[in-house]
Amino acid sequence: MSEEAQRVQKVIAQAGLASRRGAEELIIKGRVQVNGQTITALGVKVEPTDTVTVDSIPLEGREKLVYYLLNKPRGVVTTNNDEKGRRTVLDILSDVNERVYPIGRLDYDTTGVLLLTNDGVIANQLMHPKSRVDKVYIAKVAGIATDDKLAPLKHGVVIKGRKTAPARVTIERIDKDKKTSMVRVILHEGRNHQVKNMLQKVGLPVEKLTREQYAFFDLTGLQSGEYRKLTSPEIKRLKAEDYKNYRRK
């Protein structure tokens, strides 16, 4: 083996077909071939001259990598298929020819920034906890928010037996007549219903939630339900290795 040889799962991930873990699943299931021979072992390495196929389709023959930014509306699920027959984010991108999938999730009734792509490497990097990519939310909550109430979120609170990472939380405005508040929450974790659960924990149940920013992407120029392709400079920046550079100061 030459110094250029790489594990098959890494080659598949670099081609953008799946994350490395997803590539391992493909191998285990017998869907990967090297020079025409099906492999199921994860330790197999290949040379640059070897032909790697998935489901008998060469990696270089796969569809081009594409990247989209969507302003997700309420009442839409963040999934490729929904067993309940609800509208999905892919229904909105119905004119996109490539088979894209969302990076992370937003709840059914949560709106805002959502990235979609068929680049498994980028998706995996952005969602990995070590990347610490900022997610910025604006939440309308029931109750009058105070610094004292929000203080526990800045240190982390225990939800379902696990402590959350410290969040940056600020009060945007308060409506004393309606007894509601607008709170900005910035965090890099991505647990299920995390923002709602955190605010519920401190006695401020969420009535409405919007993700205003993900990494360096925001909703500028996009109405609810609208989407656009990422620009070349955005894609180049997205592929940067140091995701900590995206953090808001």
Automatic annotation (TrEMBL):
GO terms for cellular component: cytosol. It is an enzyme of class 5 (isomerase). Its EC number is 5.4.99.-. Keywords: Isomerase, RNA-binding. Belongs to the pseudouridine synthase RsuA family. Residues 6-66 form the RNA-binding S4 domain. It comes from the Bacteria. InterPro entries: PsdUridine_s_RsuA/RluB/E/F_cat, PsdUridine_synth_cat_dom_sf, PsdUridine_synth_RsuA/RluA, PsdUridine_synth_RsuA/RluB/E/F, PsdUridine_synth_RsuA/RluB_CS, RsuA_PseudoU_synthase, S4_RNA-bd, S4_RNA-bd_sf. The lineage of its organism: Bacteria, Bacillati, Bacillota, Bacilli, Lactobacillales. It comes from Leuconostoc kimchii (strain IMSNU 11154 / KCTC 2386 / IH25). One of its GO terms (molecular function) is rRNA pseudouridine synthase activity. CDD domains: PseudoU_synth_RsuA_like, S4. GO terms for biological process: enzyme-directed rRNA pseudouridine synthesis. The keyword Acyltransferase does not apply. Gene3D superfamilies: Alpha-L RNA-binding motif, Pseudouridine synthase I, catalytic domain, N-terminal subdomain, RNA-binding S4 domain. PROSITE patterns: PSI_RSU (PS01149), S4 (PS50889). This is Pseudouridine synthase.
